[in-house]
Specification:
By secondary structure, the chain is an alpha+beta fold. About 30% of the residues lie in helices and about 15% in strands. It binds ligand LVM2DEV6 and zinc ion (ZN). Belongs to the peptidase M15D family.
Amino acid sequence: MHCYPAAAKIGLTRRAMLRGIGGAALTGLVAGCAGRGGASLAMPVDPAATARPDLVDLARFDPRLRFDIRYATPANFMGRVLYPLPRAVAQRPVAEALVRVQTHAEAAGYGLLIFDAYRPWRITKMMWDETPPDKREFVADPASGSRHNRGCSLDLSLHRDGAEVAMPSPYDDFTPAAYRSNTAAPPEALAASRMLEGWMVAEGFVPLANEWWHYDWADWRLYPIMDVPLEDVTAG
Ligand SMILES: C[C@@H](N)C(=O)N[C@H](C)C(=O)O
Ligand SMILES: [Zn+2]
């Protein structure tokens, strides 16, 4: 579903981003969009989120990072393209911390492989709507929003000389194999996951228990939930 009102694409989204009120300003647009398809749900606005969004383009921010933006391809759990371009953006402090993690990884002979960063709220809603109830522990509820919507979550793995490192499960494997408590995976995969976790935690990220690939920036509550389409994000 693409439901990006033309009038909102440039003016409102950019103005909203500059003012740091992406969530509140876009609520009506999202509600109208959702209303065309199925159940209408307005994007939540978090009054406690007072920080001004400052999204940066991760590829430009640190050219050492590698990307495999699965949601810009059909090779994802939804089975279709969700993003119109393979772009990863995140709040500046998140990106700064990620650079430090990349440096830790490099010192050990690895590099970071980014699967996803900022995710517009409407994509979270699509994921929730199309995920069976018994698998919804693996997707955020759009009623409260995802930390990805705040530009504060990262889905990532490791690579070694460009080759993806084996982890306890594939990315977005919605089974208990993805849990950090999974000890049945091969020892090398568990060690790789733990190694990444150690570097991420050291630089201010909080691991999600159910998904070895997902990390939240500790200060995610400061940033508003946003629904700016990826192609419209004004990033430094
Ligand atoms: C869908 C998966 N990659 C993910 O990011 N899940 C968390 C819980 C989220 O949707 O925020
Ligand atoms: Zn995630």
